[in-house]
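Raw record, unedited: 3-oxoacyl-[acyl-carrier-protein] reductase FabG
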Amino acid sequence: MKAPVCLVTGAATGIGAATALRFAREGWTVAINNFDHGTRAAAERVAAQCGDAGAQAIVVDADVGDDAACRAMVDAVAAQWGRLDALVNSAGTTRVIPHADLEAIDAGEFERIYRVNLIGMFQMTRAAAPLLRGRPAGAASGSVINISSLASLNGTGSSIAYAASKGAVNSLTLSLARTLAPHVRVNAIAPGMVDDGLLRRMLGDDAYARVIDGMRENAPLKRVSQPSEVAELAWFLAARAPAMTGQVLAIENGLLLNT
C-alpha cells in the first residue's frame, strides 16, 4: 500500500514547516506549499529535510487566496500520487495593529487578512475535498486540520482583523466537519504564542524578545510553545484520532486561565 499523503499550506517556515517534517518522519509523503519566490529557498530546505527523513516531498507554489491556484495545487498532488489523506491549513498572515487604535485599521486590511486566513482556508479545503473523500478502500478517514489561534477564543492577537479571522476559522471548522462527514474529519488547533519567527520578522529582534518574555511571564505554565508542539498535535489529529471531528483544541500554556 502506498504511503499516505499530506498537503501542508504555508509550509516554508514555522508551524507549517514543522508539521511537514513531523508527517515525513512518520513515513508520509508530503506536499509543501510555498507562497512565492521570497520563501522558496526555505521551502526547498524543508523538502530536503523531509527527504532526509526518508519521505517523498515536493514543493508547490501557490497563493491560497487564489482559488485557481488552490485547485491547481491539489491537481499537482493528484497527478504526483493519486491520493490525499490529510490537509493542514497552516498558511496565514497578519500585521501588528494595536486593538485600541480603531482608526489604524480599515476595510482593506480586513479583506487582506480574510483573503488568506479564512477564504484561502475554505478554498483549499473545497479543492481538496474530492481527493480526500476518494482515498483507497480500507484507508482511515481523511483529515483536515485548520490552524486557528488563541486570538479566536479571547479576542487578543496582533490585530482585531486577525482575531476576527481566526474566530471565523473556528466556525468554518464546525461547518466543514458537518459537511464532509463521514469520510473526512475536520478539526482546528488554536495555539497561543508560538516561537516561530513570524512576529520577529515584523517586530525586529528586540521588540520580539520583549513580547516573548511577556507572554512567558503571563502564561501559567511560564513558557511559550515551539512549532514542533503544534505539529505533534496535528499529527495526532490526522493519524490517531478517528473519533474526533469539529473540535477546536487550544494549546496555549494555560493563558485561557487568565481570562
